[in-house]
Amino acid sequence: MKYSTNEHAEPKPALIFIPDISGFTRFVAETEIMHSKHIIEELLEIIIDANQINLEVSEIEGDAILFYRFGAAPTTNEMLNQVREMFSKFHLHLKQYETRRICNCGACRTAHSLAIKFIVHYGSITMNSIRQYKKLFGKEVIVAHRLLKNDIDQNEYVLCTENFTNHSKFWDTIEQTAWSPIEYAQEEYDSGKVRFAYLSLDPLLNQLPDIDKVNYGLQGKKSIVLETETIIDAPLQAVFDVVADLSWRSKWIPGMSPEVLDNNSLLIQEGQTHRCVADKPVIISHDYHIFHDHVQYSETTAEKSFGVTYTFQQLSNGGTHVKAAVMLPKNPLKELIFKLFVKRNLNKGFNQAWVNLNQYCSGLASRGENHSYSVQLQFEEMTINA
Predict the structure, then answer these.
(1) Are both 65 and 186 inside the same structural domain?
(2) How does pLDDT run along the chain (386 residues), one tens digit per residue?
(3) Residue 211 near residue 99, CB atoms below 8 Å
(4) What is the secondary structure of 212-244 as a DSSP string?
(5) pTM of the entire structure?
(6) 144 vs 121: CA distance, rounded Å
(7) Residue whose C-alpha is closest to residue 4's, from 134, 129, 127
(8) Do 238 and 370 touch, CB atoms closer than 8 A?
(9) SS3 assignment, position 310
(10) Which of 66, 174, 184, 320 sits at a 20 to 30 Å CA gap from 307?
(11) Are 144 and 227 in the same domain?
(12) What 3-state DSSP class applies to 201?
């Protein structure tokens, strides 16, 4: 048996800092569960990346992160700036997602309503180490967790315990530096009475910048240098789900890498990036147009050297007409080089890809199954331009 050892046998003073995400409604559909999971994962990563005061991650607990830092408490301004940074990055991501999302499932549709609160506490704790696992231990950790369930009637706030305010330099000047009025309260828990101060984060929402529109497509005049099309014996929704699943592309497109690189989002959306071949350019998906019977979108290299527009047309017999148009910026010399050295092999690759795509999608349809990755499309006129 391997016994546990304590890295910090004696309790030491430490900051305990917990950002907690809330606001998702209860989901029952598998699509929504998976998409809500991806959204939360992205937000948790953003919070971790916004760490400015050398916090350490102890645990990720569902929608919350337990941060800690041994040593002196941060100054009041350091704490406020840390909260502002995490709050701003959190809500900027949600603003961007709302303007760029494609999926219309409940999770994606309501992600913009997510909220975040912060618990800031200070006290003596120790660290338990059991094999490769480490965990914060002590009464003050329990106190910080208890404070997540408080009676504050606000969605977004930062709560600072009296233990923290007594040890944080310049707390007596917070009225001059805080973005909203400071309120004081106390609550009784099984661990005892806890006094704290809190302030609303609502004013910070109004300070967030607007989301700039980005044109990801080819600029200026364009030339269509290759058009290829096929019929897939499966409904449009099923075909789109497979094509939109970047991790699945190596299964039907010849020459693709098994692992997709440089992906900036786990969910399909405007401006999603990916690299399907290690030594090839980064591709950006954009300009989704969703109508009652067809879907169209484009993929363009980040340096805008070429692009492909895909069109999915629902057929009356239940199948899907798929068309791909490859485009280059208008340039006679580059068009000639493409025609002489690229077009034949690329067309051959597309033809094999259509066969593979039809085999997989028609198989799903015949078995009454869905692809594991799913995007809920709203089939009415909805155009997203960026």
Answers:
(1) yes
(2) 444 445 556 899 999 999 999 886 655 456 688 899 999 999 999 999 999 999 999 999 889 999 999 999 999 999 999 999 999 999 999 999 999 999 998 889 999 999 999 999 999 999 877 766 678 989 999 999 999 999 999 999 999 999 999 999 999 999 999 999 999 999 988 878 999 999 999 999 999 999 988 999 999 999 999 999 999 999 999 999 999 999 999 999 999 999 999 999 989 999 999 998 888 899 999 999 999 889 999 999 999 999 999 999 999 999 999 999 999 999 999 999 999 999 999 999 999 999 999 999 999 999 999 999 899 998 865 444 43
(3) yes
(4) PP---S--S-EEEEEEEEEEESS-HHHHHHHHH
(5) 0.90
(6) 6
(7) 129
(8) yes
(9) strand
(10) 320
(11) no
(12) coil
In a domain, 213, yes or no: no
Return the HEC string of 16-77.
Answer: EEEEEEECCCCCCCHHHHHHHHHHHHHHHHHHHHCCCCCCEEEEEECCEEEEEEECCCCCHH
278, part of any domain: yes
Q: Quick check: is 211 in a domain?
A: no
Place of tokens 């701003």: 88
Number of CB atoms found within 10 A of residue 258's CB: 9
* Alpha helices in 66-153, H assignment, sequence order: 76-100, 106-110, 139-146
Same domain, 330 and 361: yes
238 shares its domain with 198 = no
- Cβ count within 10 A of residue 46: 15
Cα within 13 Å of Cα(90), Cβ side: 29
Instruction: Report d(CA 91, CA 174) in Å as an integer.
Output: 24
